[in-house]
Amino acid sequence: MQFHGQSAPAVDRRAFLRGVGLAGALAVTRPAWAGDTVRLKLPGGPEERDMTTAFPEKGPMILQRTRPPLLETPFEVFDRGVFTPNDQFFVRWHWAVIPEQVDVAAFRLAVRGHVNQTLSLSMADLLALPRVELAAVNQCSGNSRGLFQPRVPGGQWEHGAMGNAKWTGVRLRDVLDRAGVKAGSVAVRFNGLDEPVVDGAPDFMKSLDMDHARDGEVMLAYQMNGAQLPLVNGFPLRLIVPGWYSTYWVKMLNDIEVLDAPDDTYWMKTAYRIPDTPGASVKPGQTGFGTVPINRMVPRSFFTNVRDGATVHAGAPVPLRGIAFGGDCGVARVELSSDGGGTWQAASLGRDEGTYSFRQWTGQATAPASGAVTLLVRCTNTRGVAQPAEAIWNSGGFMQNVIEQVRLTVA
Ligand SMILES: Nc1nc2c(c(=O)[nH]1)N[C@H]1C(S)=C(S)[C@@H](COP(=O)(O)O)O[C@H]1N2
Ligand SMILES: [Mo]
Fold this sequence. Notes:
Number of domains: 2
CATH architecture of the largest domain: Alpha-Beta Complex
Strand content: 25-35%
Oligomer: single chain
Bound molecules: ligand MTE, molybdenum atom
CATH superfamily of the largest domain: Oxidoreductase, molybdopterin-binding domain
Strand order of the largest sheet: 2-3-4-5-6
Number of strands: 28
Helix content: under 10%
Distance between the termini: 49 Å
Structural class: mainly beta
């Protein structure tokens, strides 16, 4: 199924409706690359992870956990371009009961609750609605959690629990308008086909305020980078919430419920909450602050062509390259420093692929005559928010966006 831009004819329905059959494929018992490992840079160790190619539609991934799958993108992938290939896009699920296949012909999306008319939409119904396309970064709230000091519980990701894709689908607003949202509706809740492993455990669901749900940007995507979604990334349909952390990007979405009262279920009321403090940061052990549901992303930037600890030639120019994103808005500038943040030099920005996309940057440094040099990269977004010099801390391990650095040693 190829997508050739906004003016293209309808997506090839037959190809889409064929769906995917992956029976047994998620029942991974051992990584195919047993023995092949990668070392992540995590201050609290242990840093070693297996690489795996055992997951359906996935190439080499860092195995963080098998069941439910937590797969991290190897960082070198981010040097190859601003769009993250589907087969190396990170994967995260909360519960291990995930359908091993989805019969697309039988698949229905329910739209129900505080609406004038309950809907049951087939994929063909969705494909017939106006199509929209948007580039956006999908980043786990806990991306870079492995850097938290002191360490916090949860997946010990390095920086690869993020990815950028071109998403194709329909506006959530268009779907809600078809159902007709009743006066007095305040929120919309999203649920997917996955289920908890134990009875009574909270099904994974997330919700958005009505204004946000109807902003015309939030979308239901059936394609990612011009192809159908990999099963483990939410085939056949997922929510895209541009600029917000991916906990809201509900996968295998089959149920939309319009609510006339705020959502007070587990994943909004208890989990994925951040301190209501500047930068969502507190001191370990601190109490007496309020919390809010995690929401908008903050700016980040990374070196992709040099890694910490690399060796360079004395006095030689060092070409630098990387990616940045603004979070909930665009990138205003990316700057480099070789004096610990005393002075900053603008990097050049690559093509603008849209407000919520990764943006490539390029720059240059000069290696010293001897010793080592530490380089810093900092993104400032179009709201004027810059990455902080000090690492933030909260007990969820959420929203890390400290300025990244690489130390280069002269050979
Ligand atoms: N149905 C469903 N959707 C979900 C989740 C889940 O557990 N179930 N996890 C969320 C979280 S926390 C993340 S980080 C993203 C990960 O998206 P990806 O696996 O496509 O990278 O999916 C989100 N959507
Ligand atoms: Mo996440």
